[in-house]
Amino acid sequence: MKVLILGGDGYLGWPTAMHLSAAGHDVAVVDNYLRRSISRDEDVEPLFEVPNLHWRSRRWEELSGRHIGVHIGDLRRWDFVAEVFAEVRPDAIVHYAEQPSAPYSMLNRRASMLTLSNNLEVTANTIFAMREFVPEAHLVKLGTMGEYGTPNIDIEEGWLDVEHNGRRERFLYPRQAGSLYHTTKIMDTDLLWYYVRVWGLKVTDLMQGPVYGIDTDECAGHDELRTFFNYDELFGTVVNRFVVQAVAGYPLTVYGKGGQTRGYLNIRDTLQCVRLSLERPATAGELRIFNQFTEAFSVNQLAEMVRGAGARVGLAVDVEHLENPRKELEEHYYNPVHTGLLELGLEPHSLTEEVLAGMIEIVTRHRETIDRHKIFRNSRWA
Ligand code: USQ
């Protein structure tokens, strides 16, 4: 399959490119290095340096014999979008090309506007490009479990059957986001659902939970092909942050009571989920939604697991409950369905103390480059 990955430079984009290429697909990536420039501007660069896409693509070709096409440009610009779609003519598109940080989206007006305009314009341009150049293509779009928020009822997989005054209808499951970033993902879903109905597009929307992990099979033994690993408050997800904090001897930053529960997954499982979705596509006029996570944990449970993993390698890990910079429920019901991807064949990797110890070992090798000032800057929602 010819697969075009939008946002191919990111934490998930590059590992996805290698994974699909290794699986025999013909892959091209697009990126404008937005995340790199925000990281530089906000002084939150990742733990180790990551070479640019041209370099990584050449290195991948030397090692695997397989080519990954690279297109550098801004997907908000229609002339660039049209040029890439006309040249690649993909069978499938994976759309990661969004500003992915909830805390960044809440930083200030400029960051909010960038998140809003980037995420919605790229999604809209992708929809228009599919119609114009590849109306039969399948779009796999990364959404987020955060679109649902934390309602006091079970979360279904995308859709809810509602009975009202004796009649029934199926609606998108109610969404109530916890940040502007998550709100843009809801808006994306609404745009996609509209154009699926009107133009008969084929779309899979993956409602993903927070991802953790460093290595994937394709970069094993080749550190130079590793993806970004952020541990800062803006781009670091909580498990990755806690691992770095444990190594740095920095008390784990549990926000508030720590009862916030989310569905987590290993980065290796993100790659499986995307590949499985591509290989068993949605049909024309279908918006297929999967809840993409493997296990649910509270922040307190994660902190205890990282403390346990640290103890195995002789690290004394402290936990500190900080005043929560976010507005979110700290104790709540959480029971989302997540069977769709398992039915497609997902074989989950569990989060264990061994897995965390493996991450601690890699981070320890980069211990000298950890910048403690990057860990907590207290960017507040209110
Ligand atoms: N948290 C802490 N301490 C920290 C960092 C986070 O207690 O130092 C808590 C947060 O308050 C939150 C939970 O851990 O309750 C998860 O936070 P996170 O930063 O790992 O994840 P989040 O900001 O929600 O966003 C991440 C990705 C985003 C994706 C989302 C999935 O950055 O792209 O969409 O996970 S979800 O959370 O299910 O919406």
Provide an overview of this structure.
The structure is a single chain. With 382 residues, this protein is an alpha/beta fold. Helices cover 38% and strands 19% of the residues. It has twelve helices and 14 strands. It has helices at residues 13-22, 34-41, 53-64, 78-88, 102-105, 109-133, 180-199, 238-248, 267-279, 299-312, 340-344, 353-365; strands at 2-6, 26-31, 68-72, 92-95, 138-144, 159-164, 167-172, 202-208, 211-212, 252-255, 261-266, 286-292, 295-298, 319-322. The relative contact order is 0.15. The mean pLDDT is 97. The structure holds sulfoquinovose-uridine-C1,5'-diphosphate. Sulfoquinovose-uridine-C1,5'-diphosphate is lined by residues 100-102, 144-146, 182, 208-210, 237-238, 241, 253-255, 260, 262, 299, 326, 328.
Q: In a nutshell, what does this entry contain?
A:
With 382 residues, this protein is of the alpha/beta class. The protein has helices spanning 13-22, 34-41, 53-64, 78-88, 102-105, 109-133, 180-199, 238-248, 267-279, 299-312, 340-344, 353-365, and strands at residues 2-6, 26-31, 68-72, 92-95, 138-144, 159-164, 167-172, 202-208, 211-212, 252-255, 261-266, 286-292, 295-298, 319-322. The chain has one domain (2-374): Rossmann fold (3-Layer(aba) Sandwich).
Please write out the topology:
Layout: E1 2-6, H1 13-22, E2 26-31, H2 34-41, H3 53-64, E3 68-72, H4 78-88, E4 92-95, H5 102-105, H6 109-133, E5 138-144, E6 159-164, E7 167-172, H7 180-199, E8 202-208, E9 211-212, H8 238-248, E10 252-255, E11 261-266, H9 267-279, E12 286-292, E13 295-298, H10 299-312, E14 319-322, H11 340-344, H12 353-365
Parallel strand pairs: 1-2, 1-4, 2-3, 4-5, 5-8, 8-12, 9-11, 10-14
Antiparallel strand pairs: 6-7, 11-13
The structure holds sulfoquinovose-uridine-C1,5'-diphosphate.
